[in-house]
Structure formats: C-alpha cells, structure tokens
Amino acid sequence: MIKGHTFFSPDSNFSHIKQKYLCAEAFSIEHLAEIVRNSSKTNNAQVLDSSYFFEYEKVLGKLFKDIPNITSYHHCHEDASCPGIIKLKENTNSMWTNQNILKVKTLELRTYAKNFSKTSSSWLVRHQTT
C-alpha cells in the first residue's frame, strides 16, 4: 500500500464489479443488477422502482426561482432573519449581491416546511405532478 493511503474494504467490491462489468453486456437495469450480484459473494444489488424517487425540481420549482448563472458564484450566504434572500458573490474581491429566490410568501413557505418535516415523503407524493 502507498504510504499515506488507507484501506477501505468496499473499494475491493467496486473493483470486482468493474471487472465483471467490463467483460459483460448490460442492456437493462436488471442486467446491471445481475452483474453486481455475480461479481462477489458480498455484493448485492437491489433495483428500486420509480416510486422511491421524487422529482424535487417539480416541487421546489413551485417555491423557488432559479438563480441565473449560478455556477459563476463561488460564495453564498444565507441569514435566518431574511428568509428567501441569498447573498452571492463571484469571488472574494467582488461585492455581495442579494437575490430573492422565493416565488411564494414567507408565511406560505413556513407552512410548506412544516408539512415537509412532518411527513416528507407523503408531502412530496401529494405535490408531485406526473
């Protein structure tokens, strides 16, 4: 082992998967799961159906605005006393700019947040549009 590196046992499992994957043909997610299962005695793959995944963009898009050119900002600051306002700056020498990201009123956002924290998965399912 190279000095300064540690051994992480799951790394070897990923190596086994990679070796099997490079020699196989996977045409579906079920094929890929089978490759993972057959790569080692300790590897197991479980295919989840789409009901386990949420389209957060559809839910959060109703509450928040997009930030234009978000990748150009390298500093971000939020203050609890100003909900919905994000302070952004591009680099250490630039000036802070305020961006209001709320599409809804602060009170409505607090109601959404309370519902979300109580029953996050059912709240998302109720507000998810298919």
Short précis:
The chain has 130 residues and is of the alpha+beta class. The protein has helices at residues 9-22, 29-39, 56-60, 106-118, 120-127; strands spanning 75-78, 85-89, 97-100. It folds into three domains: 9-47, no CATH class; 54-64 and 104-130; 67-101, no CATH class.
Would you kindly provide a written description of the structure presented here, covering whatever features stand out?
By secondary structure, the chain is of the alpha+beta class. The protein has 3 domains: 9-47, no CATH class; 54-64 and 104-130; 67-101, no CATH class. It is 39% helix and 10% strand. A 3-stranded antiparallel sheet has the order 1-2-3, with no helix packed on it. Helix 1 (9-22) crosses helix 2 (29-39) and helix 4 crosses helix 5.
Spell out the blueprint of helices and strands.
Elements: H1 9-22, H2 29-39, H3 56-60, E1 75-78, E2 85-89, E3 97-100, H4 106-118, H5 120-127
Antiparallel strand pairs: 1-2, 2-3
Anisotropy-based shape: elongated
Structural class: alpha+beta
Helix and strand succession?
HHHEEEHH
Strand order across the biggest sheet?
Answer: 1-2-3
Contiguous uncertain segments of 5+ residues: 119-130
Distance between the termini: 50 Å
Task: Throw out a few tags for this protein.
130 residues; alpha+beta; 3-stranded antiparallel sheet; 10% strand; disordered C terminus
